[in-house]
Automatic annotation (TrEMBL):
Protein name per Swiss-Prot or TrEMBL: ErfK/YbiS/YcfS/YnhG
Highest taxon, organism lineage: Bacteria
Pathway(s) annotated for this protein in UniProt: Cell wall biogenesis; peptidoglycan biosynthesis
Signal sequence segment: 1-23
One GO term (biological process): regulation of cell shape
GO molecular function, one term: peptidoglycan L,D-transpeptidase activity
One Pfam family per UniProt: YkuD
Organism: Nitrobacter winogradskyi (strain ATCC 25391 / DSM 10237 / CIP 104748 / NCIMB 11846 / Nb-255)
Length: 221
């Protein structure tokens, strides 16, 4: 067998091994832990139930960064949020993130948690969008959705949130006013795992090349 043929076979085998490692096992949304209020309000939602693209569905993936188990990392470029597990694994969720000029980045902590929170538009949002009410009561069509995690730095509320959404069609895009949006089902799942005080790392935009190098989009068990 020629050297070239052996080399080609070697590349083919390596490719097959890599593709096997990169296979992703997605998780279906488990509603068994939802509270009666959750089921009732979600059933009343009037927004379009647009399916999330397969690549942004919840999955268990390999995780090679050094954040401790129980931490959250947000990869803004690739539109993923990771909840770090033990043994080099993480739960990966698809998210909507802020437009680049509005996006939050840095290290924060979960300073507060709320179920079906009211939405109080910030002064900046009022200025940019106009015509908004001062407060929108919590409910299925509220922009904050089913759950919200409030991000703090020190004792100061950053005014950025990780929250549900009434626009699931935008998961995987960068259109928000800076907050990190998840489907309501994923927001409930994450909320039930996270404690007040949890560390949150939000990578600055244009870090996707570095993220690819550690396999954040990689294999699952």
């Amino acid at each position: 067998m020629s050297f070239l043929r052996i080399k080609q076979l070697g590349i083919l085998v390596a490719g097959l091994m890599l593709s096997g490692c990169m296979a992703t096992q997605y998780q279906s949304a488990d509603t068994s832990s939802f509270k009666p209020r959750d089921k009732d309000l979600l059933a009343k939602a009037s927004y379009a139930r647009t399916p999330v693209a397969a690549s942004f569905r919840r999955a268990i993936v390999d995780y090679h960064r050094k954040e401790a188990p129980g931490s959250i990392l947000v990869d803004s470029d690739n539109h993923y949020l990771y909840y770090v597990l033990d043994n080099g694994k993480a739960i990966r969720y698809g998210v909507t993130v802020g437009e680049e000029a509005l996006a939050f980045s840095g290290i924060a902590r979960v300073g507060n948690k709320r179920e079906w929170p009211d939405w109080i538009p910030t002064a900046d949002i009022h200025k940019r969008m106009g015509g908004l009410p001062s407060r929108v009561a919590g409910g299925p069509d509220n922009p904050l959705g089913a759950r919200a995690l409030y991000l703090y730095q020190g004792s100061k509320d950053t005014l950025f949130r990780i929250h549900g959404t009434n626009q699931p069609e935008y998961i995987g895009t960068s259109i928000s006013s800076g907050c990190i949006r998840m489907t309501n089902e994923d927001a409930i799942d994450l909320y039930d795992r996270v404690k007040v005080g949890t560390m949150v790392v939000v990578l600055e935009p244009r870090r996707s090349a570095r993220m690819a190098s550690w396999g954040g989009n990689g294999s699952v068990n």
